[in-house]
Amino acid sequence: MITEAGRVVGIEDKALWVETIRRSTCGSCAAQKGCGQGLMNKFTDGRRNQLRVLLGSLSVDTFHLNDEVEISIPERALIGGAMMVYLLPLITMIAGMGLVSNYASGDVAAALGALGGFLLGMALVRLHAMYIQNKPAYQATVVAKFTPAATNSVAITVSPHSE
């Protein structure tokens, strides 16, 4: 499980919208100047991300806007999602290019086949995202809720979570 702290910015019936702040260790990396990720982090450092987070067994009534919460994301979902988003369109693009190249000659036909395969891959990624949208095994869930820092105490409500 990967955990992250965030702030509640929206409330639904069975989920919360949580805003997280992206953190990075790129500032201490030796390959910072030659790394594309380091360049992107310079433009987006401190940018806030919003996630839809399932409540699990917790009640929506216990949460209010601006509450501080801790969320967890299953590692399987993170790795599988990265593979789906990056690898599937690449594979379908290459397959589309190869398939069209077998039946038509020329670079234009191969490029159109690659474009068609890429678009098919992106459509499959979107269908997969819609399919797993409410499946707890693939979604971030609320692990804990923190009380405001003004009271100098932290109350944690832990939800049972099974993989």
Write a brief structural summary:
By secondary structure, the protein is an alpha+beta fold. The chain is 39% helix and 22% strand. The protein has one domain (2-151).
Description:
- This protein is α+β, with helices and mostly antiparallel strands and 163 residues long.
- It has one domain (2-151).
- The chain has 3 helices and 5 strands, in the order ββαββααβ.
- It has helices at 36-44, 75-103, 107-131, and strands at residues 2-11, 15-21, 48-54, 68-73, 141-146.
- Strand 1 and strand 2 form a beta hairpin.
- The radius of gyration is 21 Å and the shape is elongated.
- Mean pLDDT is 78; it is low at 150-163.
List keywords for this structure.
five-stranded antiparallel sheet; alpha+beta; 39% helix; 3 helices; 163 residues
Question: What is the strand and helix layout of this fold?
Answer:
Elements (H helix, E strand, L loop, with lengths): L1 E10 L3 E7 L14 H9 L3 E7 L13 E6 L1 H29 L3 H25 L9 E6 L17
